[in-house]
Specification:
Layout: H1 8-11, H2 36-46, E1 58-61, H3 68-85, E2 90-96, H4 103-115, H5 124-138, E3 141-147, H6 155-164, E4 175-182, H7 193-199, E5 202-205, H8 211-225, H9 233-246, H10 250-266, H11 274-294, H12 298-312, E6 318-319, H13 320-334, H14 341-353, E7 357-363, E8 370-376, H15 380-388, H16 391-406
Parallel strand pairs: 1-4, 1-5, 2-3, 3-4
Antiparallel strand pairs: 6-8, 7-8
Helix pairs in contact: 2-3, 4-5, 4-6, 6-7, 8-9, 8-10, 9-10, 9-11, 10-11, 11-15, 12-13, 12-14, 12-15, 12-16
This protein binds adenosine-5'-triphosphate.
Adenosine-5'-triphosphate binds next to α3 and α10.
Length: 412
């Protein structure tokens, strides 16, 4: 049996990383200069607290990886420090709503975080009461951050109650403000007007980063993450360029850089160069698509397969009805219940939100009104590879691919 010494190359930790924790998702940057105007707008919403008012309710909206959470966290840290210096009693409550599909669960999370007691089993009214007790016990001013707020199915319950809590007598002394964070561009327009009017003080839009901004973000991280001289400047530029051309996401750019470090180690190199970034981009893209697709429901997967079929037919960007026709054909092939047109469109919107496809509204073909046009935003070839690994879909994907080959479309 081998003593493992023949695996020394694989075990090698190399001379690349210094403090790689700064490349981890949970690491919070000390500053977000590329988001100065968004940061200042959040500050303007919070500074009312120093005049004895409740902070503004704000919504931070933008696609994934645009620094919404990082900017909110950065500003809230400054807010707490400044409040401390001025003897203002403030606190912030942060809830990641991704796994909380109901207002009830969000309230339970808050109670559990601060009372150490799991309130499941009590009715919603009681749990909301406990949540308001938590707010009242924390500080005179409490900012509630609801990250990924669009995940909450019955969001109106919590979004209506918190801004009206004082008026309703649910809290007596505490002034509350909400910061809702969402990457669903339809979130606000879908809110009940009653909720909107009590909530909607300000919407702060986070647009995609450009290549230069991503380069600055990466350079700051690289200085700490890697040993001196371990990264070629052009490798940083390439990570930034790849991410800017795709989603304009800082998360994606950081992932490329981190993976490029791993690729360099795999090749026993101690300088990260462009070729490492190219290999890293492929690895990250595949990992990202695999994770996203594996987490999808059957209907999402069927909708995505229909979209892939449209893509290999060379019909992108495609109207919803074109995707629906592919979807209808393949539902019977894979034995999936066929949804109505509007419900399948909801699945397209879902796929857009997680960044697998891209939907843009534009004026249609002379039939009035704006219509959605859809295209893949992940690499079609890699998406096919991943869909093939899902047993229910492998036969269908074979048909999709061979029909593309027959019509000699090979550039996906
Ligand atoms: N301007 C910036 N400076 C430094 N790091 C940044 C900046 N913007 C984003 N990041 C980093 O990029 C990653 C993604 O950012 P963040 O989580 O804030 O994005 P988001 O818009 O909230 O995305 P999502 O909607 O997917 O949660 C994090 O690691 C964050 O620290």
């Amino acid at each position: 049996m081998s003593d493992g010494s023949d695996l020394d190359d694989v075990w090698a930790t190399g001379e690349i990383f210094d403090d790689e924790e700064v490349l981890h998702e949970h690491w919070t940057p000390e500053s977000v200069p590329e988001r100065a105007s968004e940061r200042d707008e959040i500050i303007r919403g919070l500074r009312r607290a120093f005049r004895g008012e409740a902070p503004k309710n704000m919504f931070l909206q933008g696609k994934t990886g645009q620094g919404k959470t990082a900017t909110a966290q950065h500003v809230l840290e400054m807010f707490e420090q400044r409040a401390d210096q001025q003897n203002l009693d403030v606190d912030t409550v942060y809830v990641s709503c991704a796994n909380h599909k109901s207002s009830y669960k969000v309230a339970c999370d808050i109670v559990e975080q601060y009372m150490g007691e799991n309130p499941h089993g009590h009715g919603q009214h009681k749990v909301f009461e406990m949540m308001f007790d938590v707010f009242e016990s924390l500080a005179e001013i409490v900012v509630v951050v609801l990250d990924e707020v669009d995940s909450i199915g019955d969001k109106h319950d919590i979004l209506y109650s918190i801004p009206r809590a004082r008026k309703q007598g649910d809290v007596k002394n505490t002034k509350l403000g909400i910061i809702g964070i969402t990457n669903d561009s339809t979130f606000l327009s879908n809110l009940d007007p009653k909720v909107k009017s009590s909530l909607y003080d300000s919407v702060i839009q986070f647009d995609a980063y450009d290549s230069e901004e991503l380069q600055q973000i990466l350079s700051r991280r690289a200085d700490r993450a890697f040993v001196d001289g371990a990264v070629d400047d052009s490798a940083i530029s390439l990570c930034a360029a790849f991410a800017a051309q795709d989603k304009g996401s800082a998360r994606q750019a950081i992932d490329y850089l981190y993976e490029a470090g791993e690729v360099a180690l795999d090749h026993s190199d101690d300088l990260i160069v462009d070729d490492h970034v190219r290999e890293a981009e492929e690895r990250v893209e595949k990992r990202y698509i695999t994770q996203s697709i594996n987490g999808l429901t059957i209907q999402d997967q069927a909708t995505l397969t229909a979209m892939v079929s449209v893509a290999v037919d060379g019909d992108e960007p495609a109207r919803t009805r074109r995707v629906y026709s592919e979807y209808s054909n393949l539902c019977s092939e894979i034995g999936v219940n066929k949804l109505a047109f509007d419900r399948m469109r909801d699945h397209l919107l879902e796929l857009d939100m997680i960044g697998i496809i891209d939907g843009k509204k534009r004026t249609g073909d002379g039939q009035g009104g704006e219509k959605y046009y859809w295209e893949m935003s992940t690499d079609t070839g890699t998406t096919i590879e991943v869909l093939e690994s899902i047993s229910r879909l492998d036969d269908v994907i074979d048909i999709v691919v061979s029909s593309a080959q027959n019509s000699s479309i090979t550039n996906y």
